[in-house]
Write a structure and sequence with these properties.
single chain; 335 residues; alpha/beta; D-Maltodextrin-Binding Protein, domain 2; 2 domains; 10 strands; 17% strand
Length: 335
């Protein structure tokens, strides 16, 4: 038998044929996103710091107008990784029955001390001066059940306004919220970055209250995957998270800010001036440099939903957070 393999090897050498070992195809990671730069996955490859994309994994991106709108695709297995805030995590587990949901990484936190919090804006020349003035009026958010909708409803309730009977809450695509407000079709809009920094909006509207005023600090963005997918594709996911952490650290590094702003401008097809005054500064939401989600914050956020009657039962987030992948990924990178 040894002689046979020696003869085959000699023949391969003589004829110039070198036996090859088939390479495994990169794992396809289908990932969804809502808005850049809160979501950095659509632009994480642009700084050219990723080391594993194209080798161990490849990304396929899908856009949704709001996190809650991706729940169905996540439940059906059409998306492998998606960006959920705490309210969508709760509705996915409690409402859609996705009990094997696992939070694997941080995306953004709203209202962290010294950092940005989402605002709810009214026209400067409009009739609304207090939250109580919203009674009987129409207001707009990007997606019901999302991270603008929940603080809005909580704030209305705090001020004696029934969010089901005393106000009309409309769903409007994020790019259209400004026009909806300034044209007088609604009296308040909940805004997200970068749309909240639109110069025309800020010139003609003011913040009536913030998400922090309504609910305090929030884990508004996380990356989630399902336990079965994690078990089957753990190595590729750790490689992906290593690249994601490298990208997050690159974007939040002041030394890269000029190039980072241009990347965002190119991707969103918006002028760089829209980002220059705030992005990746303390006027932006907080990105954890190790992409570590905050378990205690997530639990507190979700507990508040139950208190308000948005959940049927308690959710123990210890069963739904898996930090092992992102910790392994971060350990590979020098601080």
């Amino acid at each position: 038998m040894r002689k046979m393999f020696a003869i085959i090897g000699l023949a391969a050498t003589v004829w110039g044929v070198v036996p090859t070992v088939p390479r495994a195809e990169p794992t396809r990671l289908r990932i969804s996103w809502v808005v850049v730069p809160a979501d950095l996955t659509p632009v994480m490859l642009a700084p050219r710091v990723a080391r594993h994309e194209g080798t161990s994994y490849v990304l396929e991106h899908t856009h949704f107008a709001g996190g809650p709108l991706s729940v169905t695709a996540f439940a059906s297995g059409d998306i492998d990784i998606t960006g959920f805030g705490y309210s969508t995590i709760a509705s996915a587990i409690d409402g859609a029955g996705i009990d094997d949901l696992r939070v694997i990484a941080d995306v953004t936190q709203d209202g962290a001390e010294g950092w940005y919090t989402n605002g709810f804006m009214v026209r400067k020349d409009g009739p609304i001066r207090t939250v109580e003035d919203l009674k009987g009026h129409a207001v707009a958010i990007n997606a019901k059940g999302g991270l603008i909708d929940i603080p809005l409803r909580i704030m209305l309730r705090k001020h004696g306004i029934d969010d089901a009977r005393d106000a009309t809450i409309l769903e409007v695509a994020l790019p259209n919220l400004k026009a909806t407000l300034l044209e007088g079709k609604v009296e308040l809009v909940g805004t997200l970055l970068p749309f909240a920094m639109d110069p025309q909006l800020r010139a003609n509207a003011r913040v009536l209250f913030t998400a922090y005023d309504a609910v305090g600090r929030q884990q508004v963005g996380t990356l989630v995957a399902r336990a079965g997918f994690i078990a089957k594709n753990r190595a590729a996911l750790v490689d992906f998270l290593e690249d994601y952490i490298r990208a997050v650290r690159w974007y939040i590094d002041p030394a890269n800010r000029r190039e980072a702003v241009q990347i965002l401008a190119d991707f969103t097809k918006q002028p760089a001036a829209l980002f220059e005054s705030w992005v990746f500064t303390h006027s932006d939401q907080y990105h954890n440099p190790d992409a570590l989600p905050d378990p205690a914050l997530l639990q507190a956020n979700i507990d508040s939903l139950r208190t308000l009657g948005y959940l049927k039962g308690a959710i123990d987030m210890k069963q739904h957070i898996d930090q092992s992948l992102v910790r392994e990924a971060a350990a590979r990178i020098a601080p």
